[in-house]
Amino acid sequence: MKKQIFLYFTALLFTSTISGQEIKDFFSTLAKNDLFYGSVLVSKSGENTFSNFYGYSNIDKKEKINEKSQFPIASVSKTFTAVAILQLKQKGKLNIDDAVQKYLLNFPYPNVSIRHLISNTSGLGQEYHLFDKEIKENPERIFSNEDIIPALIDNKVPLSFAPGDKWEYNNVNFCLAALIVEKIARISFGDYMLKNVFIPAKMKDSFLPKNRKLKEPNQVELYTYPNFYSTDVVNVQTLKETFLIYEKSNFYGGGSIVSTALDLHKYQKALFSYQLLGKKELEEALTPTKLNNGKIASYRFDEKEIAYGLGWQIYTNDTNEKIVFHDGLITGLTSILMHNITKNNTVILLSNTANPVFVTANEVLKLIEKKPYKMPIQNLSRVYGSLLESGNKEKANQLIEEYLKNPDTY
Fold first, then answer.
1. Could you give the CA distance from residue 233 to residue 245 in angstroms, rounded to a whole number?
2. For residue 226, what are the contacts with CB-CB under 8 A and spacing of at least 6?
C-alpha cells in the first residue's frame, strides 16, 4: 500500500514538473521572439503550476520585472466593479434591474438599468469625444467619473440604441456603476475595493490609484511600438494618446486598478470559492446576457462566439468546457485573467509591451491539458516593414522568399 501511494505521488510530481517545463519553454520561446514581456501565472486544478517574469519594468534603468512588479490591469477591472455591484445586491442594498436614476438622480436616461451598465447593453454614448470641448476650453482640467453625467446632459448625447437591444463595449457603463457603488456604500470606490475585495482576498499589492498618472515605486513603465513597422518599443510617455480624454482623465470602474499576477490569482481563487460572492450571484455574473429579442449578447473573435455576462466574457472551447475571462488594453499594456471553470485551470498574463494575450492564454489552457496547441508566431508585416524602413530591401525580399517556402514561420 505504501509503495502504491509513493508511486502515485511520484507520478503526480512528474506530471506537474513536465507541465511546468513545457509552459516554461512556451513562454521562453515567446520572449525570444518578442511576443511576450511581462508577468505570467498559470494554475492547474487551482494550484500554482508556473509563474515567471520576462523583460524589464524599466528598460532605461535595466530593472527586471519581478513578483512584486505592479501593472495596471485595464479592463480586467470591470470584473471587480461587477463584483462590487453584486455584493451590494447580495446584501439587499440594490436590485440590478433598478433604474440607474434611482441612485444617480440627475442621470438623463430613465430606461437604463444597473444590469444594462454591467452587461454593456445600455446604449450610452462613448467617452472618446465626450469632453473634447471642455478640454479645449480648460486644458489643465482632469476629468473624473463625477463629470460624466453632466457631460452627457450638456452635450445632449442620445442613446445609440434602446437599452437591452444590442451589446456594445463601453467604459462609461462601468464608470457609472462605480458611482452607484460609492453612492450606496458612502465611501470612495478605492476604499470599497480595499475593504470588500483586496483585504478579503489577501491582495496586498493591489490598489486603485487616486491619480493614475502618479506611479508607485513597484509600478512598471509601459512600452509600445511607435508604428506598425517598428520592431523597437518606446516608453508610452513619449507618445501622444489617441484621444484627448485619455491624457486628461482619472476614470475608474472601467479600468485603473493596479495589481500583480499573484494578486489576481488570489482574487480568482477567492471569487470562485465564493469568498467574495455567493454562488447565486457568481453564477449570475457568468451567465450570458440575453438581449430584448431573446438572443445572447455576444461578438466573434478568433473564430469563437464570445458572450458577455455581468462584467465577464464567456465562451465554450472545442471540448465543451466553459471558459470565462476578461482582458484589458491601454497604450503599452495588455492584461487577461482567463479561467476554465470546468477544469479549474487559470492563466493570468500582464504585459507592459502590449503583447497579444487572448490567443496566448487560450493556447496555454490547451497546453496544460496536453491538448494540441499552436505557438503564437511573429507578425510578418512588422518585420518586413521594419526592414524596408531601414533600407534593407534585400533582406526584406529574402524574408518574403523564406515565408513563401514555409508560411507557418510568420
1. 24
2. 234, 239
- Whether the CA torsion 330, 336, 337, 338 is positive or negative: it is positive
- Sign of the C-alpha dihedral, residues 141, 143, 149, 151? positive
Whether 276 has a pLDDT exceeding 70, the answer reads yes
Ramachandran angles phi, psi of 409, nearest 5°: -80, -20
341-310-338-361 Cα dihedral, nearest 10 degrees:
130
Query: Who contacts 112 (Cβ-Cβ below 8 Å, separation ≥6)?
Result: 99, 100, 101, 122, 123, 124, 159, 163
Question: 298-301 and 47-54: which strand pairing?
Answer: unpaired
At 1, is the pLDDT very low, low, confident or very high (cuts 50, 70, 90)?
Answer: very low
Q: Give the C-alpha separation, 75 to 79, whole Å.
A: 8
- Computed over every residue of the chain, the mean pLDDT equals 89
Q: Measured in whole angstroms, how far is the alpha carbon of residue 349 from the centre of its chain? A: 9
> Grid coordinates in use for 215?
506611479
Report pLDDT for 19.
Answer: 57
